[in-house]
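Protocol step 4 of 5: obtain the predicted structure for the target chain.
Materials: sequence only (see below). No template structures provided, no constraints applied. The aim of this step is simply to have a reference model before the mutagenesis design in step 5. Sequence pasted as it appears in the construct record:
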Amino acid sequence: MKLLLVLGTFIVVACAAVDDVSISNFKVGILAKDQQPDAENLKTVAIFSKLSGELKAEASQRLYVSFNIAKKADNAKVKPQQVFLRFVAQNGEDAVVVVNPDANGNYLYDTVLRTAAKSFHNLSGQFKISLIVGDVTIKNPINWHFADIDAALPVAYEPTPKSQQVRYEPLNEITHQFREPEKRPSAVISDLFTVVCLSPLVILFGLWAQIGINFKNAPASPWVPIFHIGLAGIFGLYFLFWVQFDMFETLKYLSVLGFLTFVAGNRVLRAISESKQKSD
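Step 4 output (structure tokens):
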């Protein structure tokens, strides 16, 4: 597919008409912001010659360039693909701007220099101006240095970084304002919440008192007191979480007590199962 595209492009270029072109009605000048171009303020430059004298322009003035591009054979206007003005500064840096045709096919570049300062990389001073015209259908591409200009363009302002700024006046005093603590609930709601949280424990002890605690079936194993001590330690840890510990301290101690209680409970259940099997 790519090969067909390349071949098609090559055929189109090969079959395109190749013409000699010429530049006509070439005029250049420096105008005021609202000044109309006329024969007095524009200078005509012949093809491949250079304007005598140097153009001088302020940032508020306009650079005006107009010309036509036509075939040498029948003087018909053409619109090449590449029409540029190239500005070359004394330090070698260049800026290239596009020149577009109007509805009648006449090429015109009319811009206030202050507006075009970014295109010139905010350089100021002397520039060589060249016209560049090129196209696959043009037999004689043009690169024509037609004038020099001394443009007083505005210099770009580069602010000093804050790290390099020196301040001698005293700075404003920095005052810290801490966030006010959130409003706590009333004592009645806190006490009610405490009672609700402790109610399962109260119910547990109440049921134990009513049903009774039977230690007869407890196997003779050292894991039995360890299991009950672990349970008591977990309840005590919950109490300390309420009055002293934070969540991270509680989880640290709970990981040790929980693991020990789990292992002891597993051993107690295994001992109870073994004692039942022996009795059967």
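Step 4 remarks: The domain at 18-152 is CATH 2.60.40.10 (Immunoglobulin-like). The first helix runs from residue 2 to 15.
Proceed to step 5.
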